[in-house]
């Protein structure tokens, strides 16, 4: 049967119409001027926070709406898994919320695509409220401006299993404090347990190279440099650990979650964590909790690693004043302090870490961890370069795995990793 | 009912004889050419939006350097040239091909044997029929996690191996054992599904053929090869085609067991995993991932054609 022309036209229109919504969403966007009246409906997206902090966020939103009559904040929470994919789908589809919870590595591609508002232009008056390092954490090499309000910071100690240390003939009251001590203790633990107890469960990440004192990028921020002698030295040490089973044999395919489980089941002796983990140990592994040891992160630079969360304003928002006002409200000193009292995180606002909550001992382990973390945060560094994408992390992990398996020398593996990361960096534009 | 009205008259009723209030036949005829399209429209729109458009879009993107947030420009065959020099692409192609070679023969043969087993009316066989089908309906994520726990260094399987003196085996840390373990899960999961297809085919095999072969003195093995296999040969081809396409496109089993990086040093990465890893995220290379997808599509079509051609040769 011949297809009637009208039917063809109708089918084509029906096909094309829905697709017209699939564009890049590049509709010119909103204004960078945040000085107008704070009003209108905005959307706020958080990263896996609803399950545990629903009342807190509902309170913050209600207070904001009360402070600025005529505003309405719709709160969306996304699960931790696939958060970057969700943001990229929204960004590509033009449905990115007005205010978004981001980390520095997430904000970098959004800023490059022109989707993150430059706060140095739109909200420069708030800069002094935050710690200098925290404000700088959302600046992108090669670009001018700051693309997110700093929100909460996190760092944590190194947990160790005292009973496994004792069984290996080590002094459980003297955990390793330097890399040399860590490697020596790890080898002894593996030897005494006939390779059944590993000390570490993860291969070295970019953050580990940074903490070991390796220069991660060149000074211009245009290329990676972690294949220097120091980087090769660290990877060579890890290779020794892997061969001796002091590094878990499944470390090559491990994730932070799987290594956390290995520590819980007492298959590995040490694991990095945060004050939040103590509650998990108490609940899920009471036997481990009785034997838990807490020590500082090991670092050759004197500066521990910190994780930074930020709150970004979508540059395409139609309600720039309201979006900027809300992003600032969520991250201001008062709200950050009240959030920090609900969960083991640390405020990025200037002076907040001097609060007695972060300095006064009460005899509990939780407080001890909190005080130590707050103290170390004053000169902590976010070692992961802002431009270090997921693809780069995979490239590094794969090359590190080849070195640990003996398929490549540590030097060749790091050279290849740097080459791959540089190529990806150039492709990012 | 007898009637003197001819068919031509029915098709062209005269104005004088047509009931004045019922011009229905004429209206139906006027709308006849477009009506089928209206009925087909929902299906066509869904196919167009969710299959045709993504397919064409992938084809177009394969020739651009498009990234997640940055629209690309035309780069000709650059992505395909890059594929040739990308070690990870060759690793993916190797693993996907090995997966087909390892999984397909098992999925063609084992479900047939299983179907022959459960076809018999033995007391309690209904339970086994359901039990064999359970992995098909179970969530792949749940299934994957269970197998990860079983095959872990400290899992049940390794504990048993250690008890009998074999020692621990690195099912999840050795690249080849990891791939084999993932294949085993795929086979275990597919058994029930293909068993049902074979059960339907076996129900159509005439009992007389078996009885005649028995009278001629053929044993069980002989009857299997001379009666059962020829009778279900076309079903075996279908199972071979379906399982080879899904084996080449494997993702979930390897992703869950080997992790997002595709095993140690990415050595267990399959082509579809590579598409996911390359093309997703805020810095995803959509153009390059599309080029890999095009290769997957072409290989899949070639695989189907090969299986069908082999079947035609057999028939000839």
From TrEMBL, chain A:
UniProt key word Lipid biosynthesis: no
Keyword Magnesium attributed: no
Signal peptide: 1-21
Keywords: Cell membrane, Lipoprotein, Membrane, Palmitate, Signal
Organism domain of life: Bacteria
InterPro entries for the chain: Bact_solute-bd_prot1, SBP
SUPFAM superfamilies: Periplasmic binding protein-like II (SSF53850)
Name this polypeptide is given: Solute-binding protein
Source species taxonomy: Bacteria, Bacillati, Actinomycetota, Actinomycetes, Kitasatosporales
